[in-house]
Each structure stands twice: as structure tokens, then as C-alpha cells.
Amino acid sequence: MRDDIQEILISEEEIQKKIDELGAQLTEEYEGRFPLVIGILKGSLPFMGDLIQKIDTHIEFDLMDVSSYGNELVSSGEVKIVKDLNTSVEGREVLILEDIIDSGNTLSYLVKLFEYRKAKSVKIVTLLDKPEGRTVDLYPDIAGFVVPDEFVVGYGLDYMERYRNLPYVGILKPEIYQS
Ligand SMILES: O=P(O)(O)OC[C@H]1O[C@H](OP(=O)(O)OP(=O)(O)O)[C@H](O)[C@@H]1O
Ligand SMILES: Nc1nc2[nH]cnc2c(=O)[nH]1
Predict the structure, then answer these.
(1) Per-residue pLDDT of the chain in tens (179 residues, 90 and over written 9)
(2) What spacing in Å lies between the alpha carbon of 56 and ligand 1's midpoint?
């Protein structure tokens, strides 16, 4: 699988160090507030799994599955709810966990949805931010790493459902997209 990768952008060690830092920051910020931490499937699963263990205060977590890319490299712009939350966000301090913000369509949709559902507050933590991809005005509250305008894979991020299980983030060799 490593043969398919042209360049490792963020190593496993760098990701884990960042998660330790984010965990400490969120512990301080949410101490005593019992936030509802919402992981956006499928991409955020590894990030969420690692990060919640580093938040050293009570949290509740839930998962929502939304998709706007299908098997494409560019967002369709239409966000589909594949699986909704089991928990009501009304009156809750919501913390959305994402693997990447690119066009901003997914998060922009979710922030509006949770506000409409009367969340008390909505904050966004993303592992990766790709500001050059943005087509809507959307800024994360916390971003782990800024990435260039390239299609990245690994640590939750896929190409045709592959590569999500890589422990690092990298750029695929162009021949993988072309074949
Ligand atoms: O800022 P955007 O352009 O909206 O892109 C970000 C979204 O794209 C990816 O999800 P995708 O729709 O590919 O679903 P997946 O997580 O199941 O792979 C990623 O996990 C984010 O949710
Ligand atoms: N795998 C992957 N999914 C994305 N969704 C939005 N941007 C990206 C990206 O760069 N890589």
C-alpha cells in the first residue's frame, strides 16, 4: 500500500503528538461542560477514536454519517445524511470532529443544521484544513494541520474507499487516479 503513496505529508508521530496537544486543549476548555462530541463518518473515525481518549473530562459522543463526494475527487456540493444522530443536540454544547475541511460544504451544512436543532453552541475541530479548497465562508475553531490543495488520503481519508486505514496522511501517486 505504501507503494501507492507519492509523499507522506504528516507522519504517524506528528499526528499523535498533535492529538495529545488537542486533547489537553479540549480538556481545559470543556472541563465541567459535558459537551456532545459528534464524529462525522466515515473519515473522522480514526481521529475521533484517538482524540476522545485524550480528553480528560466527561463527554458524550455520537456519530453522524454524511457524504458529498461519493467516489469523486470533487465535492458534489450536495450533502447527504446517510445516518443521523441518536442524540438530541437541543441545549447542548456541540463539538464537531472532522478529518478535513476542503470546500467547507459539509461543515457549513452541519453547523446550520445543529443551530436549527437549537444546539447551545457549535464548535468545529478538524485534523486537516485545506483553505485553498474553500468555496463557502467556513472557518474551524481548531485545526490540527493546514494541507496544500492536493487530494490527500490516510488516517480516515479515502480514495475509492481505500487508504482510510493508513496511520499517516499522504498524497497518492497520480497513476492511481488515472488507472
Ligand atoms: O469541506 P468539504 O469539501 O465538504 O469536504 C470535507 C468532507 O469530505 C469528506 O467526506 P466524504 O463526503 O468524502 O465522506 P467520507 O468521510 O465518508 O469519506 C470528509 O470526511 C469531510 O466530511
Ligand atoms: N480523501 C479525501 N477526501 C476529501 N474530502 C475533501 N477533501 C478531501 C481530500 O483531500 N481527500
Answers:
(1) 789 999 999 999 999 999 999 999 999 999 999 999 999 999 999 999 999 999 999 999 999 999 887 777 777 778 999 999 999 999 999 999 999 999 999 999 999 999 999 999 999 999 999 999 999 999 999 999 999 999 999 999 999 999 999 999 999 998 998 76
(2) 28
Phi, psi of 46 (to 5 degrees): -65, -40
Would 2 be classed as within a structural domain?
no
Q: Are 39 and 45 a contacting pair, CB within 8 Å?
A: yes
- What's the total number of domains in the chain? 1
Ligand 2 pocket mutation pick from 109, 134, 152, 159 by most atoms within 8 angstroms of CB = 152
Flag whether 129 is in a domain.
yes
> What does the block give as the cell for 133?
479548497
For a pocket test of ligand 1, which of 38, 68, 78, 109 has the largest count of ligand atoms closer than 8 A to its C-beta? 68
